[in-house]
């Protein structure tokens, strides 16, 4: 098992490693904290956890976005981009959008290279297309992510819950491969040939679209005399109970503008006149200044609730 922090010798975790960075974010050997966010499609990284990533980048954390598919089967959701030349070359267009978004966020990014599964609609829904990401066997789908984990060596991984945040087959598969990589990357007997083992320390699920947050923004807009786009969202929550509690709220209101710029970079997916931007930034900063997560796995001691994804890692590691 390799060290968990640059320059720190392995000592006694379940897979043979234990280490910890200094409170300033560096390890005893000068290593930096590392955060990996695993997403299904280009644009997901900008709609879930983008302000968190921008904050940590500003604080000197290394951040890597892993994008499982190219988003080739995604609908064009911005009427201004519904043009024949865009639809005919959607894979390239979405790659270019992702390049702009990652530059805005200041993150690195890696494509896993799987094919978008699309979102099946109908009653009954049609079968998923052959060769798509959601139909790949788990070990085949997880292998390049295990490789990425062993190369980047993240201390924290962000992903979706088992429902995918919403039931898109690629989001569900992203959850599955993320959990598999978290559990397997530190085991030298699993996924041979994908690099030196590395054990991430914490795994989080995004809790972006909770009823509490959406209701708070809805009421804040009404109190400010504004028309809220969230009424239908709130009604829909009655049919979708929240699976996980929020354990971790990361203050990142100063980075909401960067988040929105990254969202707008995904021009085929984000309508600048749509509901994403209906709530003024100042109102968002006042009403809900955090991005929220559920701590799903931890190999370090931490006290809940948290306000830092690296809580328990910055000061020490105890596994």
The Cα radius of gyration reads: 20 Å
Beta-strand proportion: 5-15%
* Number of H/I helices: 10
Instruction: Give me the side-by-side strand order of the main sheet.
Output: 3-2-1-4-5-7-6
- What share of residues is helical? 25-40%
Termini separation comes to 15 Å
Q: Which regions have little confidence, pLDDT < 50, spanning 5+ residues? A: 1-30
The counted number of beta strands is 7
What integer is the average pLDDT? 89
The computed structural class is alpha/beta
Shape: globular
* Secondary-structure element pattern, one letter each: EHHEHHEHEHEHHEHHE
- Tell me the major beta sheet: 7 strands, mixed
Describe this structure in words.
The protein has 319 residues and is of the alpha/beta class. The chain contains 10 helices and 7 strands. The chain has a 7-stranded mixed sheet with strand order 3-2-1-4-5-7-6, sandwiched between helices. Strand 4, helix 6 (169-184) and strand 5 (202-206) form a beta-alpha-beta unit. The longest helix is centred in the N-terminal third of the chain and has 16 residues, at 90-105. Mean pLDDT is 89; it is low at 1-30.
Short account of what is shown:
The chain is of the alpha/beta class and 319 residues long. 32% of the residues lie in helices and 13% in strands. The protein has ten helices and seven strands.
Chart the SSEs and their pairings:
Layout: E1 34-39, H1 44-47, H2 50-58, E2 62-69, H3 84-88, H4 90-105, E3 108-114, H5 138-152, E4 156-159, H6 169-184, E5 202-206, H7 211-223, H8 231-236, E6 248-251, H9 256-265, H10 281-287, E7 290-298
Parallel strand pairs: 1-2, 1-4, 2-3, 4-5
Antiparallel strand pairs: 5-7, 6-7
Helix pairs in contact: 4-9, 5-6
């Amino acid at each position: 098992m390799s060290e968990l922090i640059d320059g720190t010798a392995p000592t006694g975790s379940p897979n043979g490693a234990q280490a910890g960075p200094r409170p300033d974010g560096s390890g005893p050997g000068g290593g930096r904290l590392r955060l990996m966010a695993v997403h299904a499609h280009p644009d997901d990284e900008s709609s879930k956890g983008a302000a968190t990533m921008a904050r940590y980048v500003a604080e000197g954390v290394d951040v890597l976005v892993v994008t499982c598919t190219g988003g080739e089967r995604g609908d064009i959701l911005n009427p201004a981009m519904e043009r024949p030349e865009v639809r005919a070359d959607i894979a390239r267009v979405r790659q270019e959008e992702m390049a702009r978004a990652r530059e805005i966020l200041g993150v690195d990014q890696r494509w896993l290279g799987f094919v978008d599964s699309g979102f099946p609609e109908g009653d009954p829904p049609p079968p998923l297309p052959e060769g798509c990401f959601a139909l790949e066997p788990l070990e085949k789908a997880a292998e390049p992510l295990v490789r990425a984990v062993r190369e980047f060596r993240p201390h924290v991984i962000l992903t979706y819950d088992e429902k995918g945040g919403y039931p898109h087959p690629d989001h569900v598969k992203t959850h599955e491969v993320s959990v598999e990589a978290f559990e397997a990357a530190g085991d030298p007997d699993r996924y041979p040939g994908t690099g030196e083992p590395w054990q991430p320390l914490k795994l989080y699920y995004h809790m972006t679209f909770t009823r509490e947050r959406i209701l708070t923004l809805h009421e804040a807009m009404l109190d400010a005399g504004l028309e809220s786009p969230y009424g239908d969202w709130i009604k829909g929550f009655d049919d979708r109970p929240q699976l996980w509690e929020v354990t971790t709220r990361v203050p990142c209101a100063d980075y909401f503008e960067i988040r929105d710029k990254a969202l707008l970079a995904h021009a085929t997916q984000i309508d600048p006149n749509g509901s994403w931007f209906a709530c003024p930034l100042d109102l968002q900063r006042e009403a809900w200044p955090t991005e929220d997560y559920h701590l799903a796995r931890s190999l370090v001691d931490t006290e809940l609730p948290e306000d830092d994804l690296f809580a328990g890692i910055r000061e020490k590691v105890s596994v």
